[in-house]
Amino acid sequence: MYTKRPDGRKFDEIREMKAKVGVVPRANGSALFAFGDTIAIASVYGPRPLHPQHLQNPEKGVLRVNYDMLSFSVPERKKPGPTRRSQEISKVTEWALLPALQIKNFQNTVVDVHIAVLQANASTRCAGINAASLALAHAGVPMTELVSAVSIGKIDDKIVVDLIKEEEDHKEGEGSTDIPMAFLSESGKISLLQLDGKISSKKLKEAIEAGKKACKKIYELQKKTLKEIREE
After folding, report:
1. 133: burial class by Cβ within 10 Å (0-12, 13-18, 19+)?
2. What is the pLDDT along the chain (232 residues), one digit of tens a residue?
3. Of 31, 76, 88, 165, which one is least surrounded by beta carbons within 10 A?
4. CA separation (Å) from 144 to 19, 23, 52, 83, 204?
5. What CATH code is carried by the domain that includes residue 106?
6. 6 lies in a domain?
7. Domain annotation covers residue 2
8. Rounded to an integer, what is the distance from CA 161 to the centroid of its chain?
9. Could you list the residue range(s) of the whole structural domain that residue 213 is in?
């Protein structure tokens, strides 16, 4: 039975969060988001003409996301350059963000989002999505709502919020199931739901409710961060 988290948090407790916008001066918009020692920075460029021209969409703008972890973001140095994992996370991040964007009137253009994980202790794609959502808003890209993401886990029979690496790697009992999810802030719709492991339908519903509750707290921090920059 899983009775205590390695870092002493309650099962429904998120690590200390940090958020800041305007961290990359030359970008159109940028933001940092951290869950404890998992830190991601997102920078946004555009909307701008998409080149080469044959990639342009005459009906709407294009969102292009590039996610990567820096070589020294993890204890064992990561080989530089894209991997199958980073390409997959880039694409699911794109899918998570698209429902909140209004770029259909920016025909033949592209909005580029670059996400760099500076330090990793699990939940990197979720930190990246939160940073990217802030950066898009900071860049003035038209959005109907923000996107907030969190990783929910099932460890043995417990649902836990904001997994750390040690919990992702938990092997005892029923093991660990990692469920990254993202919600749209106003509609409450799910824009990302992935599942790595096994879980019953009953526990999955419980996990989604825990994720929805956690993402409301994340959204409040995102909203506060954007409000502060407007008041400066």
Report:
1. buried
2. 788 999 999 999 999 999 999 999 999 999 999 999 999 999 999 999 988 888 888 888 999 999 998 877 666 666 766 788 899 999 999 999 999 999 988 999 999 999 999 999 999 999 999 999 999 999 999 999 999 999 999 998 899 999 999 998 887 777 789 999 999 999 999 999 999 888 999 999 999 999 999 999 999 999 999 998 876 5
3. 76
4. 20, 23, 29, 32, 28
5. 3.30.230.70
6. no
7. no
8. 14
9. 17-231
